[in-house]
């Protein structure tokens, strides 16, 4: 088995993913955020009024972990939890004005990343790569 060629695709995907993660972490650090906090802000921005359970499902985290993420974001005055009118035990999640402003900066980080990743490709190559990556995502059967 020659790992140099037997896993070349996986190795290249790993290298790109590792560099993307480093870029994202470096950029988010200047806003005082980690990746999970940024993902939480993005989810709430796209789903205002959602509840913690939905955020936990999106993040793939236990509710206790999500609670800790939300506590930090609340302390930073980026997220607001409001009691639902129909259920006093349920709290809906919203971005504060500062959170709304910050989420735009976070979006800009990912726009810059997209531009860096796609810069070496022309439009046809980018579309072909997207088709192939979607196929891999659908058919690689990572859950089994």
From TrEMBL:
InterPro entries per the UniProt record, alphabetical: HTH_MarR-typ, WH-like_DNA-bd_sf, WH_DNA-bd_sf
Keywords assigned: DNA-binding, Transcription, Transcription regulation
Protein name: MarR family transcriptional regulator
A Pfam family it matches: MarR_2
Gene Ontology MF terms: DNA binding; DNA-binding transcription factor activity
Domain HTH marR-type: 6-138
Domain of life: Bacteria
PROSITE patterns registered for this protein in UniProt: HTH_MARR_2
């Amino acid at each position: 088995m020659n790992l140099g060629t037997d896993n070349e695709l996986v190795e290249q995907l790993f290298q790109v993913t590792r560099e993307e993660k480093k870029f994202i972490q470096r950029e988010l650090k200047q806003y005082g955020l980690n990746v999970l906090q940024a993902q939480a802000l993005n989810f709430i921005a796209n789903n205002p009024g959602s509840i913690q359970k939905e955020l936990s499902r999106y993040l793939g985290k236990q509710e206790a972990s999500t609670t800790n993420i939300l506590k930090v974001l609340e302390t930073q005055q980026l997220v607001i939890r409001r009691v639902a009118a129909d259920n006093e035990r349920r709290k809906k999640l919203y971005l504060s004005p500062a959170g709304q402003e910050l989420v735009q900066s976070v979006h800009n980080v990912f726009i810059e990343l997209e531009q860096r990743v796609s810069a070496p490709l022309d439009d046809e190559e980018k579309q072909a790569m997207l088709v192939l990556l979607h196929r891999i995502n659908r058919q690689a059967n990572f859950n089994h």
